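2024-03-11 09:14:02 DEBUG pipeline.ingest accepted 1 chain
2024-03-11 09:14:02 DEBUG pipeline.ingest length=133
2024-03-11 09:14:03 DEBUG pipeline.predict start
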Amino acid sequence: ALPVTTVKAARQADIQTAAEKAVADGDADSIGQALFNLDLGSGAYSCARCHTLGWSYGQPGVSGQGAFGWNLTGGSVNSHFANEEQLVGFLKSGSEYGKLYGLNGQGSGRMPGFGALLTDEQIREIVDYVRSL
């Protein structure tokens, strides 16, 4: 069996390749947008899966406008997380039920942590994208 770190690095490389292809094909304007909407692994690595209504059944609405996960548009991410580092930490570790996050946010326990799936650079690309919504 391959070491976990080798499998993790290979998966991260696959994710990066898929995101770069989406940008090259014109399906995304940035790596962050591509990662947010990534359909690799049936959306297992995608933010849009929960944060975009209709994404899971192939009829996506406005990217990041909310569904199972809260609405990320209209500057709401910036008002919940005053700085980039808070948001990076949240995306890496996910939500813990009852724990306070950012400014007046309380965890539901539903947000998964992506720190084990994505590289720090990939997470920062997503942060840049969602902070622009």
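2024-03-11 09:14:41 DEBUG pipeline.report The first strand starts at residue 100 and ends at 101.
2024-03-11 09:14:41 DEBUG pipeline.predict end
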